[in-house]
Structure formats: C-alpha cells, structure tokens
Amino acid sequence: ADSERVVLEQLHTVPFVLTSSTDKAAGPVSVELPLQADNLPLETVYERFQQTSHGFKDLLSHYLSGEKPKGFLETEEMLLVGSSLTGIGELAQRPDGTLCLQPPSNGAGYFLCLEDWQTLLSSLQSASSFWKWTALVCGLAAAAVVLRALRRAHRNRRLNREREAQRQEFEDYLRNHNQDEELPANACVVCLANPRECVLLPCGHICLCFHCFQALP
C-alpha cells in the first residue's frame, strides 16, 4: 500500500514585520519563529515532484526494507505581502530598541491569523467547549461501562455463592442422610428432599424442585 513519510525536511524562513495600517506612528514589529504559530495563512506558490532513479543497491535495500520511495516533493509557501494579520504572542524589546513578537516563554498560545482577535477568541472558546463536552461524554460512557462490568461481576459472585451454598447443603444432606430411609416417590433428583415442582422443556420431565431449578446454569 502507498504511504507517505518525510525523509528530509529543510525549512528556510524569510523574516518579516507587522505594521499598522491605521496608526502611522506605531513602529514595525518583527515576527520571530513564525512557523511555530498556529493558523499561519501560508499559500503554496511552488510545488515540484521529482522522481528518484533506483540502482541495483537501492532496489536491494528497498526489497529488504519493504519500502520503495517514489520521489521527492519540493514545495514553497509564502505569506502574501499586504496580508492583514492578527498576532498574539509575547512582545519583547531587543537591545537595539526594536520590538519583536515571539512565542510566549510560559508555553501559552502563539497565533498569526487573518481573523481579528474577537473571531479567534470565539473559535478557541468553541473548540474548548467541544472538547469539554467530548470529554464529559467519554467519561460518562466509561463510567457506564465500568458500572455494567461491576454489576455483572456482582451478579456472578452472588450466583456463585448461591451455588456453593446449595452444594454445601446437598453435601450436608448426604452426610446426615440415612441410606436405609426410603425416599419419597416424587423427591427432587438433585436434593432428594423437596418435592418435584418444575417441568423441563422441551422434554417435559418433572424431576426438579424450584430451588434446584434456580441453581441450574
């Protein structure tokens, strides 16, 4: 089956700055590590797929590894000049007095997107609510599965205790029963004490009392 795997990845970034389109007095803010930002609106402007030529050693290694690369894909993505961006991150001042926007040192979110901050905040809140409800539903489902398993284990344990009590009762009866004593004609074939009360289907035999019938698997 075809699969995709990154063999070699080389990234080359070009620094850019953010400027205000309304406030001319505001100085430019350079952007650090833009590829680490979420929602970065890059457009693919160049894409080329180059097939690889295979020699005998390559074919042998491909046969042994079970993988045969088809080629290499080279792409180029860029942020269009004049794009209106909203940057959310950590604003720092360099020694030369210029400002730069960089990923927050405390691990908070770093965003570069085309939407304004209200739209971004709304989308993040919607995603947060979705994952909270998903976690709640998964937790309830897991709790239901655990409760069902506990209920089944409790029922099996109770049945095992009842069967053990019946077996012990039957052994005590055999131990204390006088072999010379005649059994009643309609005695249960299991406990030999209670009268026969249940009809077994589909054979129609009447050979068990109700107490022993409940102990059947």
How does this structure look, described?
InterPro entries: MDM2_MDM4_MUL1 (IPR051652), MUL1-like (IPR022170), Znf_RING/FYVE/PHD (IPR013083). This protein is of the alpha+beta class. It is 35% helix and 19% strand. It has helices at 56-65, 117-176, 210-214; strands at residues 17-18, 29-31, 43-51, 71-78, 86-88, 90-93, 99-102, 111-113, 198-199, 206-208. The strands form four sheets. Strands 1-2-7-6 form a four-stranded mixed beta sheet, with no helix packed on it. Strands 3-4 form a two-stranded antiparallel sheet. It is elongated and about 115 Å long.
Summary keywords:
alpha+beta; 217 residues; two-stranded antiparallel sheet; four-stranded mixed beta sheet; single chain
What is the compact description of this entry?
The protein has 3 helices and 10 strands. With 217 residues, the protein is an alpha+beta fold. It has a 4-stranded mixed β-sheet with strand order 1-2-7-6, with no helix packed on it. The chain has a two-stranded antiparallel sheet with strand order 3-4.
Radius of gyration: 39 Å
Terminal Cα separation, in Å?
A: 49 Å
Main structural class? alpha+beta
Query: What's the shape?
Result: elongated
Transmembrane segments: 130-150
Subcellular location: Membrane
GO cellular component, one term: membrane
Membrane topology: Multi-pass membrane protein
List the helices and strands and how they pair.
Elements: E1 17-18, E2 29-31, E3 43-51, H1 56-65, E4 71-78, E5 86-88, E6 90-93, E7 99-102, E8 111-113, H2 117-176, E9 198-199, E10 206-208, H3 210-214
Parallel strand pairs: 2-7
Antiparallel strand pairs: 1-2, 3-4, 5-8, 6-7, 9-10
Organism: Notechis scutatus (mainland tiger snake)
Keywords: Membrane, Metal-binding, Transferase, Transmembrane, Transmembrane helix, Ubl conjugation pathway, Zinc, Zinc-finger
EC number: 2.3.2.27
